[in-house]
Amino acid sequence: MHQSAPFTTLLWLLLTVCTYAFGAAPERVVSINLCSDQLLVLLAEPEQIASVSHLASRPENSFVAEAAKQLPQNHARIEELLTLRPDLLLASPYSDPRLLQALRRFGLRVEVIPTANDLAAIQQNIQKMGQLLGQQARAQQMIDEMQQRLANLDISHDGEPPGAIFYQPRGYTAGLGTLQHSALLLAGWRNLAAEADIEGFQPIDLERLLLAQPKRIFTSPVSSEHASRAERLLQHPALRALRPEEPFTVVDFKHWICGGPMFVDAVEALHRERQL
After folding, report:
1. Which sequence ranges are marked TM in the entry (predicted)?
2. What is the pLDDT of residues 13-57, one digit of tens each?
3. CB atoms within 10 A of CB 248
4. 26, 85, 219, 274 — which has fewest CB within 10 A?
């Protein structure tokens, strides 16, 4: 009786190794990160999914919240992950490296899905996830649909494109190397933060923003608390003078948390603003 649990665990590990070695599609996939959660839910067959992270069911963060509520959820604790007996575990570059190392020592197949900060990286991640899940055709279809939607956008203009900027609570903006930057360009805008040599997420003072003369100011509050703070910040008289009819336009923050097909939703939203 005491030997049954170790024997069962050993058998599971052997089956996991064999599945990996022979290239069969995984049957018990566990994700411990919101970004891999979303691609997993969008690409896998439901019966392939053993668990997603608890963040996947939060509608303020996740585009697959309703589907995720029907799935087992985890908190990335080693005991619960081993109990789930995954034949593939999906993580991110921000996952605890000690946890991933321990899981690999137990014989688990761990795959890290890179962070995506532009369209090419998003598509590479979709392709990688499709290969990992044995869902290459579904992944390619997703990429083709994204490309078609982007191709349908008319970003023609006379002269140079109009300038826009993201302005967040506490005065942060999104420069080079961010999804916001990539989305602005694809939607037909110039990113004034990038033109000011800002990389990543950095603060920008109000005077510098006003001198840039943006045609549109976008903001993406992280929470309702940040939304009220952003509203107070962006009601500054100088900003209202710059754009008296509407000082800023809100784009949901969850568009920027992870790269995926939802990125095209954000590009389309930015493009609609350009058409006004």
Report:
1. none
2. 555 555 555 468 999 999 999 999 999 999 999 999 999 999 999
3. 20
4. 85
